[in-house]
Write a structure and sequence with these properties.
seven-stranded mixed β-sheet, Immunoglobulin-like, mainly beta
Length: 148
């Protein structure tokens, strides 16, 4: 069985007290290849995402995979979003998606959902503040970690 990668993307989101829109002008592209494994391209459009207080925001998370190595369709891909506690020591489950199956945890029901612009889009729409983490699992669990 070919080795797949576990991707962890941390997106930071917090409310901006000003009414102006602040954007970060940096694009980030990370290429990851496991030893004797398939290629995975991770694209983080912004390291930090800003919104006005009470506004909705999308935390970007896109992944690109080699279809011959990963198989076709999204049924083999599991996307999990967690929120880190203020001390960064614990993760709180927020949202999990695997193909057509989706589950929202706790008080996040109705407040978070996947953008779903494409099969490779794991971006999360939400109305909250804090530090968030996305994990994209393939069939196996070899891993790479990216922190913004």
């Amino acid at each position: 069985m070919k080795s797949l990668l576990l991707l962890v993307l941390i997106s930071i989101c917090w409310a901006d007290h000003h009414s102006n829109n602040y954007t970060v002008d940096h694009d980030r592209v990370i290429h990851i290849q496991a030893e004797n494994g398939p290629r995975l391209l991770v694209e983080a459009e912004q390291a930090k995402v800003f919104s006005r207080r009470g506004g909705n925001v999308t935390l970007p998370c896109k992944f690109y995979r080699d279809p011959t190595a990963f198989g076709s369709g999204t049924h083999k891909i599991r996307i999990k979003w967690t929120k880190l506690t203020s001390d960064y020591l614990k993760e709180v489950d927020v949202f999990v998606s695997m193909g057509y199956h989706k589950k929202t945890y706790g008080g996040y029901h109705g407040r978070v959902f996947l953008k779903g612009g494409s099969d490779n889009d794991a971006s999360l729409n939400l109305m909250d503040s804090g530090v968030w983490q996305a994990t994209v699992h393939g069939v196996t669990k070899s891993q790479a970690r990216l922190s913004n």
